[in-house]
Specification:
By secondary structure, the protein is mainly alpha-helical. It contains four helices and no strands.
């Protein structure tokens, strides 16, 4: 959550340093003095902006979290109604129950391995029944 404080510090440091450098160029200041002023101003206002950004983040965090939660709930409600309108009866479980295939899980899952063993034993049983019948 330090993004606001870092952005605020970087913005203040670059902005104030740019203004100081521009004024130093306009005032015909020596290069050494200009570099020294630029570095000092950059670090001072960078630290000041970071502290100010941290303070603002603590003050603004509860209100921004509340508004973001409300926006997220609104977006989820809109997406649900849009999905229902687009997909129609595809979302209905009763109509699609006959079209579902059995899912035994993933290869590392125990359910998959049991499903593979069950399907293998069923296949072997059907082969032995067909061999016995012939």
């Amino acid at each position: 959550m330090t993004r606001l404080s870092l952005l605020m510090g970087l913005f203040m440091a670059v902005t104030v340093t740019g203004i100081v450098m521009l004024l130093a160029v306009m005032g015909n200041v020596n290069a050494g003095t200009m570099i020294y002023r630029g570095c000092v101003i950059f670090f001072i206002f960078g630290a000041l902006g970071t502290v100010l950004g941290s303070f603002l983040e603590v003050l603004l965090l509860p209100s921004t979290t509340e508004t973001e939660t409300e926006k997220l709930k609104l977006e989820l409600m809109i997406e649900d109604s849009e999905l229902q309108a687009e997909l129609g009866d595809l979302l209905d479980d009763d109509k699609n129950s006959t079209h579902r295939s059995e899912n035994y899980g993933t290869p590392t899952d125990g359910a998959w391995q049991n499903g593979q063993a069950n399907s293998y034993s069923t296949k072997m049983a059907s082969q032995s029944n067909s061999a016995a019948a012939s």
